[in-house]
Amino acid sequence: FDDPPGLREKTEYLLREWVSMYHSPASGKDSTKAFSAFVNQMHQQGILKTDDLITRFFRICTELCVDLCYRALSEQAHTPTLTRAKCFHTLDAFVRLIALLVKHSGDASNAVTKINLLNKVLGIVAGVLLQDHEVRHTEFQQLPYHRIFNMLLLELNAPEQILEAINYQIMTAFCNALHVLRPSKAPGFVYSWLELISHRIFIARMLAMLPQQKQGWPMYAQLLIDLFKFLAPFLRNAELPKYTALLYKGCLRVLLVLLHDFPEFLCDYHYGFCDVIPPNCIQMRNLILSAFPRNMRLPDPFTPNLKVDMLTDITQPPRIMTNFSAMIQPATFKKDLDSYLKTRSPVTFLSELRSHLQVSQEPGQRYNTALMNALVLYVGSQAIAYIHSKGSTPSMSTITHSSHMDIFQNLVVDLDTEGRYLFLNAIANQLRYPNSHTHYFSCTLLYLFAEANTEAMQEQITRVLLERLIVNRPHPWGLLITFIDLIRNPSFKFWNHEFVHCAPEIEKLFESVARSCM
Amino acid sequence: PLGPAIMTKDHLYQQTMMESAFHHLPHPSDSERLRNYLPRNQCPTPPYHSQVMPSHMDSLDLFQRLSTEALFFIFYYQEGTKAQYLAAKALKRQSWRFHTKYMMWFQRHEEPKTITDEYELGTYIYFDYEKWGQRKKEGFTFEYRYLE
Amino acid sequence: LGSDLTTLGLNLNSPENLYGTFQSPWAESPSRPQDIDFHVPQEYITN
Fold first, then answer.
1. Closest-CA residue to A224 (of A241, A244, A237, A257)
2. Element of type H or E holding C36
3. Using CA of residue A294, residue A297, residue A303, residue A307, what is the dihedral sign?
4. Three-state SS at A372
5. pTM (2 decimals)?
6. Largest CB tally within 10 Å, which of A184, A277, B94, B146?
7. In the predicted model, what is the mean pLDDT of residues C11-37?
8. Burial class (CB in 10 A: 0-12, 13-18, 19+), A461
9. C-alpha–C-alpha distance, residues B108 and B105, integer Å
10. pLDDT score of A422
11. Which is nearest to A323 in space by CA: A334, A313, A311, A315?
């Protein structure tokens, strides 16, 4: 509904008042003196009387700030630095007001009113942004919104007791707002968005400092998934325009920071990430798969006669924070799968398997990749449990002749090239640091190679491994040990295959990889 | 084998918006508080300067090798930053002490066994902040004076 | 073949965490000490 008459003028006056009070030397430490005087003015002007008025006040303030920025940006008379100084003069004051109101709303120990207000304001700013994004289209500017969100993040993460006590709720509110503004919803804001979620304070809070250390991890993972989902269609094309290339490069930088500082985070959420990263983004996916827990020592994969199955870590399952078994839908399919795994019935299960996975005839989009990934990991983890239940551990001999391997062998035979590529990728995505999944899937891939009844299958297995190896580093440990075993172990007769010698440059490539491995 | 993805109308719209946003990227200084005295201007470092930041740029070790004047410069012109913090630590290593009441620095020549008012007054070089403030306007020179 | 990730301006061999000086996804180098907000004692804010 329309704002009550006069409210916009009143708000404009109040905002101007506050900005001058904020900048006056008499405002006191953290503007507390100015704030107490200003709150009185708000009371007198009736702004704090109802929730609705408060909402309208913040929305109009936001719009006024945004309009001011668009005017300053359109003037072009100043250097970027001066334009920013002009905008931030008002923006920073507005943010300080928001922060003070949040901190002082309700009584000191009552977090609910503070967080409610924060959610309200973040929601309002997000709302104004999305509308602006919609209306101005390619004229949309991120600057005012970036500054508001960023400075509010700094203000509300100051080392103050009252804020520390509600930091988890504060960061949750930010994550909710950033999820609302995820790149697929506000592509014009994507560069600011990535800058915000990679700000050192945001990363510190979400991944390192929240009281129960991992409270922030699922929220941060969700934001990264938002980014990958947005990037996916654009990364599927080999030619990247410069604006996509920059975003991709920025994304790599953030992932490198995460790989260096929080490898366990990438380990825990690798499954969800690989589910949304396009299969052709090999280096980015390798970067995630290369993460390993910091307390783990990885034996050099090139060590001659490395006995992988003797490693202590190899028996431990990795933490997987995604509930992948719940992703196997529909429920009837899951029920049949469980039944087949347990009793190898219904007998029609294997022949119907492909129909569950194939969703269209459109080349490149024939299969439900998420279901494929979930199926592979679920069957594999059930296989490991089954082998352990027999008091054994995964190896080339213990993984065979089971309902689990039936399913894998059926898929490798029955799927077309595209389907088989996705299937082999799902397996290769589990080749990571020493753990029971890496070991099981490494054996499985080699077993499928050894048992393949056509050379095309063997070639495709080799291609999937090789395309992951020839890109620049990093390379996951599990990938290296699997490929080294493939080319070293005479039982696979790797070098006898036609495709190894199909062209001089391919042959040379294999030899150079082999040289580095053997 | 998957080939390029088919671009839907939505994707093309997103691409258009991304491309326009590309022309006004946020500048790193947008994510930090305004600097009163040394704003981070957006002009790139001239090519004849080294483009690569020296490593350990933010180590106390590096700051300790700066001159006293440089440390005071950083302390007063880059307040509220890590650089100011490191400059303060380096100054303390040079026996400079920050006098919170007068908000200025003084240098002690020997570490007192016990700190008494009388001892505090007697042994340090007095750093005249007011005059320094005035000098700052005129051109930035330091003035040291002994207190008898 | 992807790119050489060691050329993205991040010191991947650093013993300290990188996120504390991470300047921006678009920046070729980390933040400098004078770029990073830091909570210094209140008395230090003299301007």
1. A257
2. none
3. negative
4. helix
5. 0.92
6. A277
7. 91
8. buried
9. 10
10. 96
11. A334
Question: A363 contacts in B (CB within 8 Å)?
Answer: 3
For residue A454, the one-letter residue type is T
Order of all β-strands in the sheet with B144-146: B96-99, B104-108, B124-127, B144-146
Mapping DSSP onto H, E and C, the string for A427-481 reads HHCCCCCCCHHHHHHHHHHHHHHHHCCCHHHHHHHHHHHHHHHCCCCCCCHHHHH
Supply the Cα-derived Rg of chain A in whole angstroms: 28
pLDDT grade, residue B144 (50/70/90)? very low
- pLDDT at site A363: 87
Closest-CA residue of A relative to B35 is: A85
Contact: C25, A256; criterion CB under 8 Å: no
Q: Is B145 helix (H, G, I), strand (E, B) or coil?
A: strand
pLDDT tens column, A443-487: 999 999 999 989 999 999 999 999 999 899 999 999 999 999 999
CA–CA min distance A267, chain B (Å): 27
Token pair 């690798």: residue: A270
- In angstroms, the separation between the Cα of residue B59 and the nearest Cα of chain C is 9
A390: amino acid identity, one letter: K
E strand segments, A225-343: none
Q: Is A234 helix (H, G, I), strand (E, B) or coil?
A: helix
Nearest to C1 among A159, A257, A472 (CB): A472
Inter-chain touch B88–C44, beta carbons under 8 Å: yes
Distance CA B54, CA B61 (A): 13
CB-CB under 8 Å, B26 with A192: yes
Residue B145 has pLDDT above 60, yes or no: no
Supply the DSSP string of A489-515, one letter for each residue. Answer: -GGG-GGGSGGGGSSHHHHHHHHHHHH
